[in-house]
Design brief:
Keywords: Initiation factor, Nucleus, Protein biosynthesis, Transcription, Transcription regulation. InterPro entries: Histone-fold, TAF11-like, TAFII28_dom. Belongs to the TAF11 family. By secondary structure, the chain is mainly alpha-helical. Helices cover about 60% and strands about 0% of the residues. The chain has two domains: about 55 residues, no CATH class; about 80 residues, Histone, subunit A (Orthogonal Bundle), CATH 1.10.20.10. The two termini are about 30 Å apart.
Length: about 140
């Protein structure tokens, strides 16, 4: 997670005019990333690199979506679903770490931490409630 200092980065470089929007956005993005990365600690940089390298195998996502939707899916759709899944897993892990710290436990995450994190996310986000039954 980024430190609190990374939230205070100035947005002076951003040019919002419509004529130079494409050229300015391609030039600003790397400079903003380097400013943010400069504020990271070594541990945060390792975590960020691990997050960037991680992902779900495209063939497994394709099989899952084809089976669920019962039709062939566009490759761009598969990439989008893979990204959404990656973000969802990141939220689950972040919440599970919060559960672990609430319980004053250390070490690797346990299944009970992940289950509690999922339960909390389901209670917090009304769109996640698929069924009205208790899962665990």
């Amino acid at each position: 997670m980024p430190s609190e200092d990374s939230n205070n980065i100035n947005n002076e470089d951003i040019n919002t005019s419509s004529t130079n929007e494409e050229s300015s956005s391609t030039n600003i993005y790397p400079s903003r990333i380097t400013k943010i990365l400069d504020t990271f600690t070594d541990k945060e940089i390792l975590r960020y690199e691990s997050f960037r390298r991680s992902g779900f195998p495209k063939n497994m996502i394709r099989k899952f979506t084809n089976h669920t939707l019962k039709q062939a899916c566009n490759p761009n759709f598969i990439i989008a679903i893979s990204g959404i899944a990656k973000v969802f897993v990141g939220e689950i892990v972040y919440e599970a770490k919060a559960v672990q710290s609430d319980l004053n436990e250390e070490g690797p995450l346990l299944p009970s931490h992940v289950h509690e994190a999922y339960r909390r996310l389901c209670n917090r986000c009304p769109n996640m409630k698929i069924y009205n039954k208790k899962r665990w």
